[in-house]
Amino acid sequence: MKFLALGDSYTIGESVDPAERWPAQLTALLRGQGLAVAEPTLIAQTGWTTDELAGAIAVANPPGPYDLVSLLIGVNNQYRGREAEEYRRQFVSLLKQAIAFAGGHASRVIVLSIPDWGVTPFAAGGDRAAIGRAIDSFNAINRAETERLGAAYVDVTPGSREAATDPGLVAADGLHPSGRMYAEWARLSFPAACRALQQP
């Protein structure tokens, strides 16, 4: 079975080993259930916004259909101060593409919420509360649009905020998640991924 993961640094696993990326850890969990899942195809790069991901997808033109597609995007829109409604338009376009890559089956698509980087050491000296509020506003958009289009939504944001008191959840760069946090994202995504792959 084929798995396509779309995103940014959180999908490519900036600052962790490839095996610790959350799509890789999710694949391992699925294989543990006896599901024959190939190595995930990643279209993701650190720093990408919604429009940059869309441009990369157009270039890559991945050959579908895929049995499972994930989408996690938007933190760089927030970081760069981009407008929320621009994010909504571009996120909806990306989600519709993800559904198309899944053969038109929204039930085979999982969307992950944007984690809160405001709790990381990188954000020291910044307005952590304001960052958190902005992340929440972007997540309200991606949750509403995901539910409207019928895909699965996985909320990793509350767990990401545990990094405020648990430094082991942050990678050595002081910004991105550690392999241990990605393991939690894989665990949270696992039920929706199983449902997607076990349906007729």
Structure description:
This protein is of the alpha/beta class. It is built from 8 helices and 5 strands. Helix 6 (128-149) links the parallel strand 4 and strand 5. Helix 3 packs parallel to helix 5 (84-101). The two termini are 13 Å apart.
Short note summarizing the structure:
By secondary structure, this protein is α/β, with parallel strands linked by helices.
Query: Roughly how many Å is the radius of gyration?
Result: 16 Å
Helix segment tally: 8
Named CATH topology: Rossmann fold
The overall pLDDT average reads 96
Q: Strand sequence of the main sheet, in spatial order?
A: 2-1-3-4-5
- Count of distinct structural domains: 1
Q: Helicity, in percent?
A: 40-55%
Overall morphology: globular
Q: How would a textbook summarize the main sheet?
A: 5 strands, parallel
Quantity of strands, as a count:
5
Given as residue ranges, the uncertain stretches (5+ residues, pLDDT < 50) are none
How is this fold's topology laid out?
Layout: E1 3-7, H1 9-12, H2 22-32, E2 41-44, H3 50-60, E3 68-72, H4 75-79, H5 84-101, E4 109-112, H6 128-149, E5 152-154, H7 157-160, H8 179-198
Parallel strand pairs: 1-2, 1-3, 3-4, 4-5
